[in-house]
Every structure is written in C-alpha cells, then in structure tokens.
C-alpha cells in the first residue's frame, strides 16, 4: 500500500486515506498503530473522526455481528484522539478533529480540504 501510495503521489496525485490510529485485537484489547507506519505514509495532515459511541456500537454490530461494550468504545475513541495528537506532534503536522454525527459540518470540512467529487 505504501509503495502504491508513494508512486501515485509522485505522479502528482493527492489522497484522503481512511484508517485508524488504534485498533482492537481479537481479545478487544486496544493497540496503537505504530508511529513508524505514519512515518512511512508521510501524511500532510491528519484527521481523527469521532462519533456517538451508541451509533458506533450499532454500526460495528451491523458490520461484524459483534457487540462491543460502550465503555470500551469510549475508551478506544479517547485513545484514538490522544494517539492522533501524539503522532501529529511527533511528525509536526496538523491534526483535524471532526465530529461524524454532525453530517453537515463533516461535509463542509471535506469540501474545505477537497477537491473531492460527489460530496453530498
């Protein structure tokens, strides 16, 4: 992925890469994505998206048929934001925090950083 990303960028492309700053392991333990991964990607900016844990819980259940505890999802979200801020500081890049539950403000944010096609 990193090689393909670098090749596309070298040809003048720009991308919005969707990912996480922390992930669950098989035992629902939270692990940070290593700083080295972000150094390899070389992002210009970071975006950390937060949302209502109740909605996140439902979406995860609909997707994976696995019900995560709300307190675990809250903890994960706090760690995700904290780790994004740490990465931003270490790489000296801007970190944008966006609330997903406010669709209008999220779309406005995407338009600001665009251009993207078909954002509605």
Describe the structure in your own words.
Helices cover about 50% and strands about 15% of the residues. The radius of gyration is 16 Å and the shape is globular. Strand 1 (about 20-25) and strand 2 (about 30) form a beta hairpin. The strands form two sheets. The protein has a two-stranded antiparallel ribbon. It contains five helices and four strands, in the order αββαβααβα. The model has no long low-confidence stretch (mean pLDDT about 85). It has a single domain, classed as 3-Layer(aba) Sandwich (Rossmann fold), CATH 3.40.50. Helix 3 packs across helix 4. The protein is α+β, with helices and mostly antiparallel strands and about 120 residues long.
Summarize the structure.
The mean pLDDT is 85.
Tell me the radius of gyration. 16 Å
Helix and strand run:
HEEHEHHEH
The name of the CATH superfamily reads P-loop containing nucleotide triphosphate hydrolases
Integer average pLDDT: 85
Tell me the domain tally: 1
Task: Give the overall shape.
Answer: globular
* Strand order within the widest beta sheet: 1-2
CATH top level is: Alpha Beta
Number of strands: 4
CATH topology (fold) name? Rossmann fold
Biggest sheet overview: 2 strands, antiparallel
Distance between the termini: 28 Å
DSSP strand (E) fraction?
A: 15-25%
């Amino acid at each position: 992925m990193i090689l393909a990303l670098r090749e596309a960028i070298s040809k003048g492309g720009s991308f919005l890469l969707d990912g996480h700053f922390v992930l669950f392991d098989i035992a629902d333990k939270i692990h940070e994505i290593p700083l080295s991964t972000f150094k390899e990607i070389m992002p210009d900016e970071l975006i950390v998206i937060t949302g209502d844990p109740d909605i996140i819980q439902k979406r995860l259940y609909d997707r994976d048929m696995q019900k995560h505890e709300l307190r675990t999802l809250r903890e994960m979200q706090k760690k995700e934001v904290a780790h994004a801020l740490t990465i931003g500081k270490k790489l000296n890049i801007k970190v944008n925090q966006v609330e997903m539950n406010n669709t209008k403000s999220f779309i406005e944010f995407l338009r600001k950083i665009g251009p993207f096609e078909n954002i509605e």
